[in-house]
Fold:
Amino acid sequence: MTERPRLSVIGTGYLGATHAVCMVELGYDVIGLDIDQSKIDALRAGRIPFFEPGLPELLVKHMDSGRLRFTTDYAEVAAFADVHFICVGTPQQKGQYAADLTYVEAAFASLAEHLTRRVLVVGKSTVPAGTAARMADLLAERAPNKEVELVWNPEFLREGFAVEDTLRPDRLVFGVRSAWAEETIRSAFQPIIDAGTPVIVTDFATAELVKVAANSFLATKISFINAMAEVCEVTGADVTQLADAIGHDVRIGRRFLNAGLGFGGGCLPKDIRAFIARAGELGVDQAVSFLRDVDEINLRRRARTVEFGLELLDGSYHGAKVAVLGAAFKPNSDDVRDSPALDVAAGVARRGAEVVVFDPQANESARKLQPQLGYADSLEEAVAGADLIMLLTEWQEFRSMSPDTIAGLVSRRNLVDGRNVLDPVEWRAAGWAYRALGRP
Structure:
């Protein structure tokens, strides 16, 4: 294609809204679609319904330019765009490990019936291997134009860095079946490709597996160092020093070797569980066993964090006030999906503590999931009169706390550092009983 194609983005959640806004920033004209009118109304008003640094400013900028708009009408989208990105969610099925593909299938089916000219449909949702082939068959069956083609293009966004990851990704992966499909998808990412981003062109199944394989590997690194933390707790070793030492090996690297409360959020937990389910369906039992161990190690760290608090409170949470610092699964996010911090907070409350949570961005999201917990509007309010502080999300505000200042606010100087981000020597010197995962 000689001219830049016009783009649509189906689904305006975290992935879709980010992709739509950033593709306009790259010079494309974009229309976003969602079946949820409230999401469309918010975006039209210049409001992003989640926290992501830098994205609200870009949304307002491009809404004002007229090159970005939003709709609930599939016919309008089909008439406008040459390339359609499917960015809807694939949550974990309730009570199961498998991914729920209801939204993906509905988006493809709804779009297909309006495709009366040759266009490219691009799947970006994280799906089990084999889904792309099924969606290609769906398009072939239901689209009026039989030249409509599919590409699978997995996303690799990190919450808190999604704008950077969209505008300057470390790689682009295209699962294609024809030269025309490859040429067209390249035209939809031309500025990124021209900037030197590596491009991997492959088949559907490999493109689908790249995302879940990458997330499973990252989860494995985190669970590995947390398994080492369990050994360190028994032997008296320091897992942070261990991680530094092995991280100097270039074959290993230091990133994702931070022992602590473990991973959570809307991607890693659900993706490895969906991978477990799909591997089981395919009969790859060794992969199932391996990934189950990764997940179980991660979950054990949450229970161990609750135990540390019990130890500091002489075996009982009853009647104790516990200040929980952090509710989001990671800093620079308001996402509380499968959040280790919120899971621990709820577990402590079930054991009889009065729990007060403070998170700089995620209080409201947390309140919707765990309304029985208390919530504070500031760090100082949360820790006032506390018998125990649990640092569970490593926001900079918490990392930079002064032990002497905080000591003047609490009832008892007990601290569980669930993210291994504070200096135990400094805190103990200030009279604090300090516990952290994998450290003496």
